[in-house]
Amino acid sequence: MKLSAAMGRIAPSSTAAMSDRALARRAGGADIISLSVGEPDFATPAHVIEAAKAALDAGDTKYTAVAGTLALREAAALHFARDLGIAVPPEQVIVSAGGKQAIFHALVATLDPGDEVLIPCPWWVSYPEIVRFAGGTVVPLETTPASGYRITPAQLAAAITPNTRWLLLNSPGNPTGSVYPAAELQTLGAVLAAHPQVMVLSDDIYAPLRYTPGHHATIAAECPELDGRVLTVSGLSKSHAMTGFRIGLAAGPAWLVKAMGKLQSHSMGSPSTNSQAAAVAALEGPQDFLIAWCAIMRQRRDTVIAAINAIPGLSAPSPDGAFYAMVDAGPHMARFGDDQALCLHLLDNGVAVVPASAFGGKHGFRISFAASEAALEEALRRIAKALS
Ligand SMILES: Cc1ncc(COP(=O)(O)O)c(C=O)c1O
């Protein structure tokens, strides 16, 4: 038996691989602090859990509309307007099993061999794999700490060809925590305006977890000239600590949302019914806990960044959003050879982090600070000792 050619183009998720390794070592009795996973350590809010239970008790256990219940698409439209500044009718919203599935369906529905997809690098692990699976060609747009891990309009203009089909933008970004200010999105929009063949997939799933003041700027809201060309992806996995509910939200042009629904009708069917009820409660219920969660994350960020920058040979800029820091370990590379070897050495010393190469980066690792202050402080002590 053989696997498809599409399967041959993709690699397994390296973040999942590192978490699995950490779990296996733990199961074998090792004391491992895992800073490799991409999920908040907070408990899902009680009112969200109650809504999921109430839906089950009420007998909401059957299929729903493929694109999600009208109640959830209306709540999502409220979220896109309130939190992301995007006015969209519920018919142009689709609910998927996590943000990941929305991205998967959007790219599989639109890419043909030879189509190019621009992805700022370092990138979230799944972007290039999904593009390759869909038959597209990945075009990395390199970013550095000096550019705030953000692309420039000149870089974008130079990368666009007649075959460019998508630009993937992720703000706040995983793994860098970079956030695009409104003015920069406008300058990127001005470049894109001259290339109508290019769509933008704007992944704003971390928007509520930001350390910058004011509202969150999205390219759909900031660039009206791109009307009909932006798919905005959001969700509750990160902001509302609901990774296991598997709910993702996407808003975009009617033709694309319809195509994603067509694909979804044959891949997943409808999203989990009681998860959808929980998501309505999450979107329509109180949001003020987010202020407290951001304050906790900001404190952890400051602890981690100060400790990293105090370790000889390590450096990391302070991220503006999400709960990750990209650590440069360049001066240690001569000793370890590559960042995989460095991360295995750290694992041997009781800390699991993900090599930068998993994100298209090099010479470093990503640390997730979605862990208690005590765990973070101990992990950083171990890292310092392991590299001394
Ligand atoms: C940048 C980014 N987008 C999308 C997702 C997908 O999240 P989920 O499918 O759990 O909703 C993740 C999860 O790690 C992410 O980091």
How would you concisely characterize the structure shown here?
The chain is built from 15 helices and twelve strands. With about 400 residues, the protein is an alpha/beta fold.
Can you give the helix content as a percent range?
40-55%
Order of helices and strands: HHEHHEHEHEHEHEHEEHHHEHHEEEH
Oligomer: single chain
Low-confidence stretches: none
Percentage of residues in DSSP E strands: 5-15%
Describe the structure.
It is a single chain. By secondary structure, this protein is of the alpha/beta class. 42% of the residues lie in helices and 14% in strands. It contains 15 helices and twelve strands. It has helices at residues 5-8, 14-27, 46-57, 70-84, 99-110, 126-133, 153-159, 182-193, 219-222, 254-267, 273-284, 289-309, 333-336, 339-348, 373-387; strands spanning 33-34, 93-96, 116-121, 137-142, 164-170, 199-203, 230-235, 248-251, 324-328, 351-352, 354-355, 364-368. The strands form three sheets. A seven-stranded mixed β-sheet has the order 2-8-7-6-5-3-4, with helices on both faces. A three-stranded antiparallel β-sheet has the order 9-12-11. Helix 6 links the parallel strand 3 and strand 4 (137-142). Helix 3 runs antiparallel to helix 11, helix 5 (99-110) packs parallel to helix 6 (126-133) and helix 7 packs parallel to helix 8 (182-193). The longest helix has 21 residues, at 289-309. It is globular and about 55 Å long. The termini are far apart. The mean pLDDT is 95. The chain binds pyridoxal-5'-phosphate. Pyridoxal-5'-phosphate (PLP) binds next to helix 5.
